[in-house]
Fold this protein.
Amino acid sequence: MFVFTNTNSIANQFIAELRDIHVQQDSFRFRTNMERLGSLFAYEISKQLAYSQTSVKTPLGEAPTQLLTKQPVLATILRASLPLYNGFLSIFDKSESAFIGAYRGAHKADNSFDIVQGYTATPSLQDRVLILIDPMLATGKSMVSTYEQLLRYGTPAELHIVSIIASKPGVAYVQEALPQAKLWMGDVDEEMNHKSYIVPGLGDAGDLAFGEKL
Protein backbone atom coordinates (compact mmCIF):
# COMPACT_ATOMS: atom_id res chain seq x y z
CA MET A 1 0.00 0.00 0.00
CA PHE A 2 1.26 3.44 -1.01
CA VAL A 3 0.55 6.29 1.46
CA PHE A 4 1.51 9.86 0.52
CA THR A 5 2.06 11.04 4.10
CA ASN A 6 4.64 8.30 4.73
CA THR A 7 7.06 10.54 2.81
CA ASN A 8 7.24 14.31 3.03
CA SER A 9 6.08 15.99 -0.17
CA ILE A 10 3.83 18.82 -1.35
CA ALA A 11 0.96 16.33 -1.08
CA ASN A 12 1.07 16.94 2.69
CA GLN A 13 0.00 20.55 2.14
CA PHE A 14 -2.91 19.60 -0.09
CA ILE A 15 -4.14 16.97 2.38
CA ALA A 16 -3.73 19.33 5.33
CA GLU A 17 -5.78 22.01 3.57
CA LEU A 18 -8.51 19.49 2.74
CA ARG A 19 -8.75 18.67 6.45
CA ASP A 20 -8.56 22.28 7.71
CA ILE A 21 -12.00 23.58 8.79
CA HIS A 22 -11.02 27.14 7.85
CA VAL A 23 -9.69 26.35 4.37
CA GLN A 24 -12.71 24.09 3.78
CA GLN A 25 -14.94 27.18 3.64
CA ASP A 26 -13.50 27.84 0.16
CA SER A 27 -15.12 25.12 -1.97
CA PHE A 28 -13.08 26.12 -5.03
CA ARG A 29 -9.81 25.52 -3.14
CA PHE A 30 -11.19 22.26 -1.76
CA ARG A 31 -11.93 21.00 -5.28
CA THR A 32 -8.58 22.28 -6.56
CA ASN A 33 -6.66 20.43 -3.85
CA MET A 34 -8.52 17.24 -4.72
CA GLU A 35 -7.60 17.71 -8.38
CA ARG A 36 -3.95 18.31 -7.47
CA LEU A 37 -3.86 15.10 -5.47
CA GLY A 38 -5.51 13.25 -8.35
CA SER A 39 -2.67 14.36 -10.62
CA LEU A 40 -0.05 13.30 -8.07
CA PHE A 41 -1.71 9.91 -7.53
CA ALA A 42 -1.88 9.39 -11.31
CA TYR A 43 1.83 10.15 -11.66
CA GLU A 44 2.74 7.67 -8.91
CA ILE A 45 0.50 4.95 -10.36
CA SER A 46 1.95 5.54 -13.84
CA LYS A 47 5.29 4.23 -12.56
CA GLN A 48 3.68 0.83 -11.93
CA LEU A 49 2.09 0.36 -15.36
CA ALA A 50 3.40 -1.53 -18.39
CA TYR A 51 5.36 0.33 -21.09
CA SER A 52 6.64 -0.55 -24.55
CA GLN A 53 9.53 0.89 -26.52
CA THR A 54 8.87 3.13 -29.48
CA SER A 55 10.32 6.23 -31.11
CA VAL A 56 9.11 9.73 -31.80
CA LYS A 57 9.97 11.61 -34.98
CA THR A 58 11.42 15.04 -34.27
CA PRO A 59 12.33 17.82 -36.75
CA LEU A 60 15.93 16.54 -36.62
CA GLY A 61 15.59 12.77 -36.32
CA GLU A 62 14.03 10.16 -34.06
CA ALA A 63 14.06 9.92 -30.26
CA PRO A 64 13.57 6.58 -28.46
CA THR A 65 11.00 6.53 -25.67
CA GLN A 66 8.77 4.28 -23.57
CA LEU A 67 4.99 4.74 -23.78
CA LEU A 68 2.10 3.12 -21.94
CA THR A 69 1.12 -0.24 -23.42
CA LYS A 70 -2.50 0.15 -22.29
CA GLN A 71 -4.39 3.18 -21.06
CA PRO A 72 -6.16 2.58 -17.73
CA VAL A 73 -9.90 2.90 -17.22
CA LEU A 74 -10.71 5.59 -14.64
CA ALA A 75 -13.75 4.64 -12.53
CA THR A 76 -15.20 7.27 -10.23
CA ILE A 77 -17.92 6.97 -7.59
CA LEU A 78 -20.31 9.93 -7.89
CA ARG A 79 -20.45 12.68 -6.71
CA ALA A 80 -17.63 13.32 -4.26
CA SER A 81 -14.97 11.76 -6.50
CA LEU A 82 -15.36 14.12 -9.46
CA PRO A 83 -12.57 16.61 -8.60
CA LEU A 84 -10.17 13.77 -7.75
CA TYR A 85 -11.13 12.05 -11.01
CA ASN A 86 -10.49 15.27 -12.97
CA GLY A 87 -6.93 15.29 -11.64
CA PHE A 88 -6.45 11.74 -12.91
CA LEU A 89 -7.94 12.61 -16.30
CA SER A 90 -5.53 15.53 -16.70
CA ILE A 91 -2.67 12.99 -16.59
CA PHE A 92 -4.25 9.91 -18.20
CA ASP A 93 -5.85 12.09 -20.87
CA LYS A 94 -6.37 9.22 -23.32
CA SER A 95 -8.20 7.05 -20.80
CA GLU A 96 -11.76 5.82 -20.97
CA SER A 97 -13.95 6.41 -17.93
CA ALA A 98 -16.57 4.65 -15.84
CA PHE A 99 -19.10 6.43 -13.62
CA ILE A 100 -20.92 4.76 -10.74
CA GLY A 101 -23.65 6.01 -8.45
CA ALA A 102 -23.18 4.41 -5.03
CA TYR A 103 -24.05 5.75 -1.60
CA ARG A 104 -24.82 4.76 1.96
CA GLY A 105 -28.42 3.85 2.65
CA ALA A 106 -30.21 5.04 5.77
CA HIS A 107 -28.56 4.16 9.05
CA LYS A 108 -30.30 1.36 10.92
CA ALA A 109 -30.95 1.23 14.68
CA ASP A 110 -27.49 -0.25 15.26
CA ASN A 111 -25.93 2.44 12.98
CA SER A 112 -25.13 -0.13 10.28
CA PHE A 113 -26.13 0.60 6.69
CA ASP A 114 -26.34 -0.97 3.24
CA ILE A 115 -24.67 0.34 0.09
CA VAL A 116 -27.16 1.47 -2.53
CA GLN A 117 -25.97 0.96 -6.11
CA GLY A 118 -27.52 3.07 -8.85
CA TYR A 119 -26.34 4.53 -12.13
CA THR A 120 -23.45 2.78 -13.92
CA ALA A 121 -21.84 3.70 -17.24
CA THR A 122 -18.62 1.96 -18.18
CA PRO A 123 -16.59 0.63 -21.10
CA SER A 124 -15.56 -3.02 -21.18
CA LEU A 125 -13.23 -3.78 -18.28
CA GLN A 126 -12.02 -7.15 -19.55
CA ASP A 127 -8.24 -7.40 -19.14
CA ARG A 128 -8.00 -3.67 -18.55
CA VAL A 129 -6.12 -1.70 -15.90
CA LEU A 130 -8.87 -0.34 -13.62
CA ILE A 131 -8.30 2.62 -11.31
CA LEU A 132 -11.20 2.91 -8.85
CA ILE A 133 -11.41 6.40 -7.35
CA ASP A 134 -13.25 7.56 -4.20
CA PRO A 135 -11.87 10.28 -1.89
CA MET A 136 -12.92 8.62 1.38
CA LEU A 137 -12.47 4.97 2.33
CA ALA A 138 -14.34 4.57 5.63
CA THR A 139 -15.76 1.08 6.08
CA GLY A 140 -14.63 0.04 2.60
CA LYS A 141 -18.09 -1.38 1.82
CA SER A 142 -18.87 1.00 -1.04
CA MET A 143 -15.51 0.34 -2.67
CA VAL A 144 -15.93 -3.45 -2.55
CA SER A 145 -19.59 -3.28 -3.57
CA THR A 146 -18.77 -1.03 -6.52
CA TYR A 147 -16.00 -3.32 -7.74
CA GLU A 148 -18.32 -6.32 -7.52
CA GLN A 149 -20.89 -4.44 -9.60
CA LEU A 150 -18.26 -3.55 -12.20
CA LEU A 151 -17.31 -7.21 -12.67
CA ARG A 152 -20.49 -7.52 -14.75
CA TYR A 153 -18.57 -5.58 -17.43
CA GLY A 154 -15.42 -7.74 -17.46
CA THR A 155 -12.59 -8.81 -15.17
CA PRO A 156 -9.75 -6.28 -15.00
CA ALA A 157 -6.15 -7.42 -15.36
CA GLU A 158 -5.12 -4.95 -12.63
CA LEU A 159 -7.04 -3.15 -9.91
CA HIS A 160 -5.83 0.08 -8.30
CA ILE A 161 -7.89 1.69 -5.52
CA VAL A 162 -7.38 5.35 -4.67
CA SER A 163 -8.60 7.38 -1.67
CA ILE A 164 -7.40 10.60 -0.09
CA ILE A 165 -8.34 9.65 3.47
CA ALA A 166 -8.88 6.07 4.67
CA SER A 167 -9.53 4.41 8.00
CA LYS A 168 -7.43 1.49 9.18
CA PRO A 169 -10.51 -0.76 9.53
CA GLY A 170 -11.60 0.18 6.00
CA VAL A 171 -8.18 -0.61 4.58
CA ALA A 172 -8.21 -3.99 6.33
CA TYR A 173 -11.69 -4.76 4.95
CA VAL A 174 -10.68 -3.93 1.37
CA GLN A 175 -7.41 -5.86 1.61
CA GLU A 176 -9.29 -8.94 2.81
CA ALA A 177 -12.09 -8.65 0.24
CA LEU A 178 -9.90 -7.62 -2.70
CA PRO A 179 -6.41 -9.01 -2.06
CA GLN A 180 -5.41 -8.39 -5.69
CA ALA A 181 -5.92 -4.64 -5.36
CA LYS A 182 -3.06 -2.16 -5.11
CA LEU A 183 -4.03 0.55 -2.63
CA TRP A 184 -3.04 4.21 -3.04
CA MET A 185 -3.92 6.35 -0.03
CA GLY A 186 -3.28 9.98 0.86
CA ASP A 187 -3.39 9.35 4.61
CA VAL A 188 -4.74 6.63 6.91
CA ASP A 189 -6.59 7.49 10.13
CA GLU A 190 -6.86 5.15 13.09
CA GLU A 191 -10.60 4.92 13.60
CA MET A 192 -14.21 5.71 12.75
CA ASN A 193 -16.97 7.02 14.99
CA HIS A 194 -20.23 5.20 15.82
CA LYS A 195 -21.73 6.28 12.48
CA SER A 196 -18.71 4.98 10.53
CA TYR A 197 -17.28 8.40 9.68
CA ILE A 198 -13.48 8.63 9.64
CA VAL A 199 -11.90 10.38 12.65
CA PRO A 200 -10.27 12.87 12.37
CA GLY A 201 -11.05 12.59 8.63
CA LEU A 202 -12.20 15.76 6.90
CA GLY A 203 -16.00 15.62 6.91
CA ASP A 204 -18.27 15.02 3.90
CA ALA A 205 -16.11 15.47 0.79
CA GLY A 206 -19.12 15.74 -1.53
CA ASP A 207 -20.77 18.48 0.53
CA LEU A 208 -17.50 20.39 0.88
CA ALA A 209 -16.86 20.24 -2.86
CA PHE A 210 -20.39 20.88 -4.18
CA GLY A 211 -22.61 22.09 -1.34
CA GLU A 212 -24.78 20.35 1.21
CA LYS A 213 -27.26 17.85 -0.22
CA LEU A 214 -30.87 17.65 0.87
Summary: The chain has six helices and twelve strands.
